[in-house]
From TrEMBL:
Belongs to the flavoredoxin family. It comes from Bordetella genomosp. 2. This is Flavin reductase like domain-containing protein. The keyword Cell wall biogenesis/degradation does not apply. The keyword Electron transport does not apply. PANTHER family: FLAVIN REDUCTASE LIKE DOMAIN-CONTAINING PROTEIN (PTHR33798:SF5), FLAVOPROTEIN OXYGENASE (PTHR33798). Residues 19-172 form the Flavin reductase like domain. Keywords: Flavoprotein, FMN. GO terms for molecular function: FMN binding; oxidoreductase activity, acting on the CH-NH group of donors, NAD or NADP as acceptor.
Length: 213
């Protein structure tokens, strides 16, 4: 089936994306407003875009009457923290997805402990297995209801038992037990069966006799 996105409703284009670009990592963003009040919200339009410099991008939407709290807070220039969501934290993450009134501390509402960051003002979620302290490098206005935030990672926090070799930065990724966003209103996926497919050199591939058609 062919879908021409220029000929269909934007909502349907969104549905095509969210039901086929899966699973998506979740950026559980902790930010602060101008008064220093904490805010937490999850975003699944999120990904790593560069290793050098270490860049992530987050798609942030708006409310009909103005920007969401995160969108407004990321213009304050106090930095923010991307926390990754483990299976144990999924239900608490879902609480922070509630469309609370501005000024409500979602971290407190969800019963989440926090820990101080080293390089940015907002705290990190203490029980998150991975937290990235970030600063905004650019905000791209893609339309009246969508911003793409380009951010640089300044520091990582990784749970101790998931670090295999600190000097080499080897991480036990399965031990992080991260969840991914799937389709529809509330579908997520846990880490399941892992399949390793080593990358080949051209010489090894040619010597293998694998089909080439």
């Amino acid at each position: 089936m062919y879908f021409d996105l220029s000929a269909i409703d934007r909502r349907n284009a969104y549905k095509l994306m969210t039901s086929t670009i899966v699973p998506r990592p979740i950026a559980w963003v902790v930010s602060q407003d101008e008064q220093g009040r904490n805010n937490a919200a999850p975003f699944s339009f999120f990904g790593a875009m560069s290793g050098d410099p270490p860049i992530v991008c987050i798609g942030v939407g708006s409310r009909p009457d103005g920007p969401k709290d995160t969108g407004a807070n990321l213009r304050v220039d106090s930095g923010f923290v991307v926390n990754m969501v483990s299976a144990a934290l999924l239900k608490r993450m879902n609480v922070t997805a509630i469309d609370f009134a501005p000024g409500v501390d979602e971290l407190q509402a969800a019963g989440l402990a926090i820990a101080a960051s080293h390089k940015v003002a907002p705290p990190r979620i203490a029980d998150s297995p991975v937290a990235m302290e970030c600063v905004v490098r650019q905000i791209l206005d893609m339309g009246p209801e969508r911003r793409i935030v380009v951010a640089e990672i300044l520091a990582f926090h990784v749970r101790d038992d998931a670090v295999l070799d600190a000097d080499r930065c080897y991480i036990d990724t399965p031990n992080l037990d991260l969840v991914g966003r799937m389709h529809g209103g509330g579908w997520y996926t846990y880490q399941g069966e892992l399949v390793e497919v080593p990358r080949w050199s051209e010489a090894d591939w040619r010597a293998s006799g694998e089909p080439r058609d």
